[in-house]
Amino acid sequence: MLNLILFGPPGAGKGTQAGMLMSRYNLLYISTGEVLRQEIKNGSPLGLKARNIIESGGLVDDEIIVQVIGNAIRSEQRSDGFLFDGFPRTYVQAYILDGLLTRLHTSLNRIFILEVPDEVCKQRLLQRATEQGRSDDNETVIERRLMEYHQKTLPLLTFYESQGLLTRINGLGTADEVFARINQFVSDDINSNPINLILFGFPGAGRATQASKLASEFNLTIISTGELLQEELKAGSPVSSEIKPFLEKGLHVPDEIVIRLIEKKLQETAGNSRGYIFKGYPRTHVQAYILDGLLRKTGRSISCVINLQVPFLELIKRLDARSQTSSKMPYDSSASTIVARLEEHQLRTEPVLDYYRMHNQVIDVDGNGSAETVYERLKEPFIRTIRNLR
């Protein structure tokens, strides 16, 4: 998830920037005042408590604040993260927010502070007061609000700066110029997340083509078990004689052989890219667990699974056409071996896909159409998924 806090003095343009961030990244806006008003409007027990305190002239305590913020966070399932405004306001609330996000197995990505000189903020607020007829926004009130902001915000900035989360943004310029400064940091954070994906699909679904496109755009290394095995055959390695009979019949090569080849590839390419695309692996439940173990050794895990869906008859047509090219595979030699390979895939691999579905990691993509059309189809949900990685 993408979780941000936006700080800034009154008149810095936080509302405008918050709206742009919410729209661009599908974030839920959470402000203490808004969630309190919603609880009061709903007539919930917490809302009634808060209303009684406010009507008696008191300040709502952290015990109530943490519960209403927690309710807002837990109730939202459609957003890709949170944008906090007006919370936290104190050291205590900063720790409360850490605790709430930890319970959701996520954390803060960045805290932005819009830096605008007090004089500029004052001018903006006075102009807004004139344009909107707000007599309460006079110079005395504005100066008091600015002073209160600096007094309350400075300790929090120190707290987050010590964690390396604070990012100072020049808040002068047009709204688009300020947003571009903020967005550069958000984009960099998203693009720095390591990615490890599995590309599923029956033989003939176009996995090789889509893997190549993804690898090129997102700086990923492709690990294809089929290619690794073919490389061993061409090199005439010690294991080539063990591999050959299985490949000729279109059968799975024993895990003991494949594991060593994948592990070797991971070691050789460590640090060369942002992550990996696994094509042709895993094909069984056992291999899914093996892959988890292999990645865990390097501190990684599977980010998502892309499943290219192509009708059975179309797969046969594609594989038959491929058999007439230099890209043909051993099992492309006849209709019977093609069908046998597809049936084996369905029997052994589809249950593995169900395993990843249980973990909500599967992105189903219609694999019909040109390579470019399919790529555009899978790109949007893929980007949204990696945006939410943490």
Strand order of the largest sheet: 2-3-1-4-5
The geometry reads as: elongated
Radius of gyration: 28 Å
CATH class annotation of the largest domain: Alpha Beta
Distance between the termini: 6 Å
Q: List segments where confidence is low: pLDDT < 50 over at least 5 consecutive residues.
A: none
Tally of helical runs: 16
Percent in helix: 55-70%
Class of secondary structure makeup: alpha/beta
The CATH superfamily label of the largest domain reads: P-loop containing nucleotide triphosphate hydrolases
Order of helices and strands: EHEHHHEHEHHEHEHEHHHEHEHHEH
Describe it.
The protein is α/β, with parallel strands linked by helices. It folds into two domains: 2-27 and 79-192, P-loop containing nucleotide triphosphate hydrolases (Rossmann fold, 3-Layer(aba) Sandwich), CATH 3.40.50; 195-387, Rossmann fold (3-Layer(aba) Sandwich), CATH 3.40.50.300. It has helices at residues 14-25, 32-42, 45-55, 62-75, 91-103, 118-132, 139-161, 175-192, 207-218, 225-235, 240-248, 255-269, 285-296, 312-322, 335-358, 371-387; strands at 2-7, 28-31, 81-85, 110-115, 166-170, 195-201, 220-224, 275-279, 304-309, 362-366. The protein has a five-stranded parallel sheet with strand order 2-3-1-4-5, with helices on both faces. The chain has a five-stranded parallel sheet with strand order 7-8-6-9-10, with helices on both faces. 27% of the residues are buried. The mean pLDDT is 87.
